[in-house]
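PROTEIN DATA CARD
Card holder: Metal ABC transporter ATP-binding protein
Chain length: 246
Origin: Carboxylicivirga marina
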Amino acid sequence: MKPLVQVHNITAAYDNNVVLSNVNLDVNENDFIGIIGPNGGGKTTLLKIIIELLKPASGVIKKDPNLKIGYLPQVNSIDKQFPITIRDVILSGRFVNDKWWSKPSKQTLQKVDELLEFIGLKNVHNMPIGELSGGQMQRIFLCRALMSNPNLLILDEPNTYVDKTFEASLYNLLGELNKDMAILLVSHDVGTISSMVKTIACVNGGLHYHHSNKITNEVLQSYNCPIELVSHGHVPHRVLKHHEHE
Ligand SMILES: Nc1ncnc2c1ncn2[C@@H]1O[C@H](COP(=O)(O)OP(=O)(O)OP(=O)(O)O)[C@@H](O)[C@H]1O
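Structure generated from the sequence above:
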């Protein structure tokens, strides 16, 4: 098992407000880790530290020299008014590998076409992103994350807006991609996460790692945070699991 990222004893804070303390996490090649936890627990903050958008207040992060990260941010954090087309968003993912002044290669342009085909937006590739739905934005930014052929794919709630049909193909795709890359997936949909990922990390101010994808009663009790269970049905609803000490 080759480690791609090793997070050692990280503390993260915004101004003086500490949101993560003493967090440890190893991400190895071909891992598929589901990150769960309550709103405001620090999941996105952990991702931002791994991709170096945020500096930890203390602690160390070690990265494999060949690490290449593809990142899909939360769609509601993206400025839809930014004047850029669907094609150019996807194409911009190449800058993880390419210099900003270089011309895209034939293979790169072909890859953009394949990705556009996959998400069913080839016919509207010149549309500005301001005209897109949340689900379409999520698909486009997933493609952007895949443009660099990453060996670590980081997804922050990729299924918030996508419809059930695309969600199924998204999950199939992630299963396929995991043969060639590690995946870190933040989601509130614990039921789905449990059926896809290999291991689970619960983030709530700290991090509790579980070496399995099975969410049993024992697991729920061993976590130091409540877990949202999403129940699908005629009326989708969420059930919040409380711990005995709460
Ligand atoms: N840029 C920021 N400045 C100040 N505080 C922030 C900032 N970003 C996040 N926070 C705070 O840090 C805490 C953790 O936020 P974070 O977004 O990491 O949680 P999360 O687990 O991803 O939540 P959610 O499930 O709602 O997306 C929250 O209390 C949040 O308000």
